[in-house]
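[agent] plan:
  1. take the single chain provided in the ticket
  2. run structure prediction with default settings
  3. attach structure tokens to the ticket
  4. add a short note for the reviewer (M.T.)
[agent] executing step 1
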Amino acid sequence: MLMPRQPVPALQVPTLAHGPYALDAEQPENWSMVVFYRGLHCPVCFKYLLELGRMQAEFERRGVGIVAISSDTRERAQAMADKLKAPALRIGYGLPLTVAQEWGLYISSSRGTTSIGIEEPARFSEPALYLVRPDGTLYYGAVQTMPFARPHFDELLGAIDFALANNYPARGEIAEV
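[agent] step 2 finished; step 3 output follows
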């Protein structure tokens, strides 16, 4: 389990149109937002990333750099990007499932073709969203076992505004009780 105020694992993936992504090379003013999504087969992911693309400028105004990452192949990631029509959104692909597990993501196996007629990969990671400080430590994390009930981006913007205005620390930092 990742712990707030502690370093997160290394994260490096290729992106479709923005060169290689390496979390340790990012220099956001306040946070890097890493959005792990299930892949092309997930209609909930499509809606979630569509909303993220729509709100991307608001996050950037608050000093938050964004990347959306899946374990999909380049071709599947490109198909998702083509559907999203959000060229500014960095889409990473090829996330190794071993790295997904290091990040605390849950791994699922295929159930075949989804409701939108796309075959699920044999194995893939479930969604998560993390805010990582520029020093590489975890500030916020939400990890899902299912595709639904994810953090709402408008609520996250409000939380970011509050955290910035009040110098609010990362919480949940105690490992032993």
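[agent] step 4 note for reviewer: DSSP finds four helices and nine strands in the chain.
[agent] ticket updated
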